[in-house]
Design goal:
This protein is of the alpha/beta class and 314 residues long. The strands form three sheets. Strands 1-11-8-7-5-6 form a six-stranded parallel β-sheet. It has two domains: 29-118, Rossmann fold (3-Layer(aba) Sandwich), CATH 3.40.50.10860; 140-290, Rossmann fold, CATH 3.40.50.720. 42% of the residues lie in helices and 15% in strands. It binds nicotinamide-adenine-dinucleotide (NAD). Residues 141, 164-167, 169-171, 188-190, 195, 208-211, 229-232, 288-289, 292 line the site of nicotinamide-adenine-dinucleotide (NAD).
Length: 314
């Protein structure tokens, strides 16, 4: 079998176009959805993520505001900033870029964001509503995975899905989002016994682990759909091993090296090995990644509608 490579860039663009036209419609009613992104400290990856989110807002006609705070910001200072954004009428969505510096109490911060403006879907109220099957703002990455599966016409109702990873950001919300689609879901993690066998039961396998190329053909039922959420930067001594294990990364490596970048971005799935047995697979990069920003934009529009009691499709 030769797997179909799912084009996340195309699906992400499609969703962004839909958001753009919704933003135009709202503008006719005098509404411009607005997003505030709060970045604490100088984490280079976080800076790139926030910049990309602000750019997406600009491209789609949303109002955006980037708030940069010094690395030594205290929990109390950050709570004050969030409180003012919660009361700011120009702002419909508030996102606090994670990870936060160690001195900051992350749970207190996530709890402080108004649930109506919680476009990352991380407030306990939204997490609880999702678990209860009620309307909620839901985390962008796992929501993007469901969008991919739906738009690729993959049957979810009654299908068996295995998720590897149980984080609050991806694995756990993924479980509830797929239950909402009537799938039969198994959630696996670092203590799961006989992981390859459990995964091989699945019609759809979602990997959200943070371990480069861990999932090989041995984990995949022939003909299954494989969604790779992982983004792992592999550099230094580990490069040689990963390129040998997954030769599909060699082209990316050569390209990066030509631009003086001595690393590859690897998924949690060994693409070379799994593409030979799966029926469809998302690549890294260009798979789930582009959906995360598209869903953030969609959540911001959704939040703007909800705060004004306007109906919106979900
Ligand atoms: P996390 O570290 O919070 O959670 C990882 C999970 O994997 C844990 O539940 C753990 O039990 C499980 N795990 C770890 N080692 C395992 C093993 N050997 N066998 C089975 N399970 C194991 O990570 P996260 O925040 O959920 O992110 C997971 C991956 O997804 C990372 O690579 C991250 O970079 C990526 N990610 C991508 C996006 C995106 O936009 N595409 C967004 C968020 C996260």
């Amino acid at each position: 079998m030769k797997a179909k490579i799912i084009d996340g860039v195309r699906i992400g663009r499609e969703i962004q176009e839909e958001v753009r036209s919704e933003v135009e419609t709202l503008k006719l009613q005098g509404i411009q959805p607005g997003l505030a992104a709060v970045l604490v400290g100088n984490n280079p990856a976080s800076q790139v993520y926030v910049r990309n989110k602000i750019r997406a807002c600009q491209a789609l006609g949303l109002y955006s505001r980037e708030i940069r705070l010094p690395a030594e910001t205290t929990t109390e200072q950050l709570l004050t900033v969030i409180d003012s954004l919660n009361h700011d009428r120009a702002i419909d969505g508030v996102l606090v870029q994670l990870p936060l510096p160690r001195q900051i109490d992350e749970s207190a911060i996530l709890l402080a964001v108004s649930p109506q403006k919680d476009v990352d879907g991380l407030h306990p109220m939204n997490a609880g509503n999702l678990a209860l099957g009620r309307s909620a703002l839901t985390p962008c990455t796992p929501t993007g995975v469901v969008a991919i599966l739906r738009r690729e016409g993959i049957t979810l109702e009654g299908s068996r899905v295995a998720i590897v990873g149980r984080s609050n950001l991806v694995g756990k919300p993924q479980l509830f989002l797929l239950l909402r689609e009537h799938a039969t879901v198994t959630i696996c993690h670092s203590r799961t016994r006989q992981l390859p066998q459990v995964c091989r039961e699945a019609d759809i396998l979602v990997a959200a682990i943070g371990r480069p190329a861990l999932i090989t053909a041995e984990f995949v039922k022939p003909g299954a759909v494989v969604i790779d959420v992982g983004i792992n930067k592999v550099a230094g001594a580990a490069l040689k091993d990963i390129l040998a294990a997954d030769p599909s990364l060699v082209a990316q490596y050569e390209k990066n090296r030509a631009g003086n970048k001595e690393y590859v971005l690897a998924g949690d799935v060994n693409f070379s090995s799994v593409a030979a047995v799966a029926s469809a697979i998302t690549p890294v990069p260009g798979g789930v990644g582009p959906l995360t920003i598209a869903m953030l934009m969609k959540n911001t529009v959704q939040a703007a509608r909800m705060q004004r009691n306007l109906q919106g499709e979900r």
